[in-house]
Specification:
608 residues, binds magnesium ion, 23 strands, binds adenosine-5'-diphosphate, 5-stranded mixed β-sheet, 20% strand, elongated, alpha+beta
Length: 608
């Protein structure tokens, strides 16, 4: 009466497939790896509907002999290794003989192939693991693998697929990695009939880095090399002025394979230490060329993680060589200038403007400092919107009739700015320490929300439109946010295959670098939120995106830590807090203020 039974082969394959193939991009990855292993000089990828309907990878590699076609599709069948020893000398991208069998188990797969130098090709079709017969077929030299109806027999997986653009973004990123890893191979990518890119072969990765990361960055790249065995590598590294807010500008390749490795990421961070600000990350492309005996690639089903025999020595060598190149390039003195805006100088007109700004937006001119004004949000007329950081440019305040606000800001309680980032306030019953950025961010959040709700965000048309070069993945993500970003006054036009031109920004961010604004938006918001389209346009996801954009813009337009504030600016900020009765947390959920009552202090100093 046993209850244990052996699973049938088809089910075993389906389960195994789950490990390697979790979305269309993994099919693209496996098929392109096979093409590269076959020695292709040209790899062309066509997909439809983000890969749900069709993925076709064609190559001009060595091809598969007709007799081998059924074997190519069988599980654990490979031409790449023969013995366990080979495992530690792997020079191909694949070797587990799993990919085609896995894909065949969960899709309609057709292989058409002709071995180089033979007169005729052959084809083979498999549907959900059921294999047809090998048939003679006219074909070009090389192989075409065509995958239709992915996950047709795994409804759960199909249900987990995201929108076309999200799946496409993953595929685009996969292709970007291959293109960077194999500059000598020609790559083409077509989506729904549109040519997304066609990359001619190149001697080194620089032209492709230019294509995906912009000419400026590519031109500025430094090249650091280590040639002493066993650790040889070449690193194409951007000067610290080209930082990104996440790790997506960092690519590590090992023998033509994109890998992720914590110790290498750490090495990159170390190499740029003190050259980039906290929270920013350098852009770097590292090509490791280690003997196979130094690495175990068989530790992860998709081989994105590997194990190094001498991980820490490699780490130290990377730090040493990259650091030396950065030092040689003498970049250090330029960093603070490039990355850190200088604190604004004291300017009475600017201060008056600031006061006007806070009070006019609150609608409670003159009353705010003494009593909380009723919440009567009167929006600024077009053109009187606050400048960057809510502190308008000199001259925008004085000619306004609302300047009496200055008198209202005369402080009864005393307050100071300390260390350029905190405000200390004397309260009737104690003291408060306030994070100036966190507080202003809350204030800005409410202000921008009110404007947005009334569709009253003033747009600033850029005099010099900003050209932003994006990776295919970034482009796809940006497109998803288009309606939401437009409602906040950020408008752009497509300009060539991978470039957009920013036309307008919200007026309150008019002094920001629009290129950086867009890039940071992509890294901080687009990559982290559920996109409306991704979840079938649900209202909740749409609201989530709007909310994320609000937070992002509030943060960007708030005064930063390190900006010195004039006394009147401090008063205005605190008055706004009183008026809004702001929650005690900043827009990101961090606390805004710390309050110590007199009795807290007395207890602490043991006076009671
Ligand atoms: P692996 O790549 O790990 O060997 P796969 O299941 O991906 O396993 O492929 C099985 C075999 O089919 C490969 O070892 C190779 O011999 C053959 N093959 C697959 N794709 C191609 C291709 N595009 N060109 C030539 N041979 C291929
Ligand atoms: Mg393979």
């Amino acid at each position: 009466m046993g209850i244990i039974r052996k699973l049938d082969a088809a089910l075993v394959n389906q389960i195994a497939a789950g490990e390697v193939i979790d979305r269309p991009a993994s099919v693209v990855k496996e098929l392109v790896e096979n093409a590269l292993d076959a020695g292709a000089h040209r790899v062309s990828v066509e997909i439809e509907a983000g890969g749900r309907n069709l993925i076709r990878v064609s190559d001009d590699g060595g091809g598969i002999a007709p007799d081998d076609l059924p074997l190519a599709l069988a599980p654990h069948a490979t031409s790449k290794i023969r013995s366990a020893d080979d495992l530690f000398a792997v020079r191909t991208l694949g070797f587990r003989g799993e990919a085609l069998a896995s894909i065949a188990a969960i899709s309609h797969l057709t292989l058409v192939s002709r071995v180089r130098g033979t007169p005729e090709g052959a084809s083979l079709e498999v549907r959900g693991g059921a294999c047809g017969a090998v048939q003679a077929a006219g074909a070009a030299e090389g192989t075409v693998a065509e995958v239709r109806n992915l996950f047709f027999n795994v409804p759960v997986r199909r249900g987990f697929l995201r929108s076309v653009s999200v799946e496409y973004a993953h595929i685009a990123e996969t292709m970007t990695r291959f293109a960077l890893a194999h500059p000598a191979v020609r790559f083409e990518l077509r989506h729904d009939g549109k040519l997304e890119f066609a990359l001619p072969p190149a001697e080194d990765p620089r032209p492709r880095i230019a294509r995906f990361y912009g000419e400026d960055l590519a031109k500025a790249l430094l090249v650091a090399r280590a040639a002493d065995p066993p650790f040889s590598f070449t690193a194409w590294i951007a000067p610290p002025a080209f930082t990104r807010p996440n790790l997506q500008g960092q690519y590590v390749f090992l023998g033509g394979r994109f890998i992720r490795d914590k110790s290498i990421s750490h090495a990159l961070r170390e190499a740029y230490r003190e050259l980039v600000m906290e929270g920013r990350h350098p852009v770097a492309f590292l090509y490791l060329d280690l003997p196979p005996s130094e690495v175990d690639v068989n530790v992860h089903p998709t081989k994105i993680e590997v194990r190094f025999r001498n991980g820490w020595r490699l780490h130290d060598r990377v730090v040493e060589v990259l650091r030396a190149e950065l030092m040689r390039a003498d970049l250090i003195p330029k960093i603070p200038v490039a990355d850190r805006p200088p604190p604004p100088a004291f300017d009475p007109a600017r201060v008056q403007g600031a006061i006007f700004d806070f009070f006019s937006r609150s609608g409670g001119v003159g009353a705010a400092a003494t009593a909380p004004a009723p919440p009567s949000p009167s929006l600024p007329a077009a053109g009187s919107d606050p400048g960057p950081g809510g502190l308008p440019a000199p001259g925008s305040g004085p000619e306004n009739p609302a300047t009496p606000a200055v008198q209202a800001a005369v402080p009864p309680p005393r307050r100071w700015q300390v260390h350029g980032r905190y405000l200390v306030e004397e309260l009737p019953d104690g003291i408060a320490v306030i994070d100036q950025h966190a507080l202003h961010e809350r204030v800005r959040l409410e202000a921008i929300r009110r404007q947005w709700e009334r569709d009253a965000i003033v747009r600033q048309r850029l005099l010099v439109p900003a050209v932003v070069e994006l990776t295919p993945r970034e482009l796809a993500r940006l497109e998803e946010s288009r309606p939401a970003l437009e409602s906040f006054g950020i408008e752009w036009e497509d300009f060539g295959e991978h470039t957009v031109v920013v036309r307008t920004v919200p007026d309150f961010l008019r002094d920001e670098d629009p290129v950086r604004l867009l890039r940071d938006y992509l890294a901080q918001v687009a990559e982290t939120t559920d996109r409306p389209e991704a979840t079938g346009g649900s209202e909740r996801a749409a609201a989530g995106l709007v909310d994320a954009i609000l937070h992002f813009l509030a943060c960007r337009s708030a005064v930063k830590a390190g900006e010195s504030l004039a006394p009147a600016e401090i008063d205005a900020l605190l008055a706004e807090r009183d008026r809004l009765e702001l929650a005690a947390t900043c827009a990101h959920g961090r606390p805004v203020a710390l309050k110590l009552t007199l009795s807290d202090l007395e207890r602490y100093f043991k006076r009671t």
